[in-house]
Amino acid sequence: MGYADLPLDQLRRYQSEVTRPDDFDEFWQRTLKESRAAAAETRLEPVDNRLTTVDTWDVTFSGFGGQPVKGWLHLPANRGEAPLPGIVEYIGYTGGRGLPHERLGWALAGYAHFVMDTRGQGGDTDDAGGSGSPSVPGYLTQGWRSPEDHFYRRLITDAALAVDAVRGLDAVDSSRVLTHGISQGGGLAISGGVLGGAQAVLADVPFLCDFPRAAWISTRAPYDEIVHFLLRRRERADRLFQTLAYVDAVNFARQAGVPALFSVALMDPTCPPSTVYGAYNAWSGEKSIREYPYNQHEGGQGYQQREQYDWLRGFLN
């Protein structure tokens, strides 16, 4: 597969035309205030992960509307008494938190690592405010008539409140909590990190960015859900994109004030590079990006994780 998006020099200058709703801040401040008011105490139960170098807890915290959301907390077994920097990780589209012995890289590198489950998708958390039990996609048009009802209002709120929950753990240094994710997780790292007040954001090949352009040029799911919806409902385009503007990572990036490390794959047909640059170029804090010219949506994988270890070593020191 070759390049199907803008040339690299144009990507680096690309500016998203996503419109920020006038009540964007009020909408999200109200949403978080209501959900925080309904929050219950975070619960932790130790689990046997069959490992000797990492300890794991099954975590339940309060997400959107006070609804319970699951996650795994991984800590190095030899961590000592000092609180650790925290990494809140979000999962890709249709996925869930998985099994407790998966996703161990951050804990092995010395971090407190929280893997948030994804409501309504492939994990253990119901979408109590929407479709109920976890199900197959799509989610981009679920609740399209209003930002109040949209699926990603609930999931982004979960992502922000996961930062709250991790910041409140005894094992975590509350002044050093970061967000991370790939694809959908990368989009949530942006929105949840900004709303939750994370100290830095790691966003890899992020989804949920620049919806209007993504719908025009992406040839793959999940963005093609928008196309399939509108090809039969032609009169609903304006309303749908007005709703999506409330959950578009570009609009969160515009109000970010913390450092971020992005990655982009220049042959990515799932999250086209211009949509990633739409969020990256809108990022209002210190930022850098790693480009992978010959990769598709797999992005940098282990190479990018190595970049993140180095970047965080400099950031945290």
UniProtKB/TrEMBL annotation:
InterPro entries: AB_hydrolase_fold, AXE1_dom, CE7. Substrate binds at Y93. Gene3D superfamilies: alpha/beta hydrolase. Transmembrane segments: none annotated. The active site is at S183, D268, H297. It comes from the Bacteria. Residues 1-313 form the Acetyl xylan esterase domain. One of its GO terms (biological process) is polysaccharide metabolic process. GO terms for molecular function: carboxylic ester hydrolase activity. SUPFAM superfamilies: alpha/beta-Hydrolases. This is Acetylxylan esterase. The lineage of its organism: Bacteria, Bacillati, Actinomycetota, Actinomycetes, Kineosporiales.
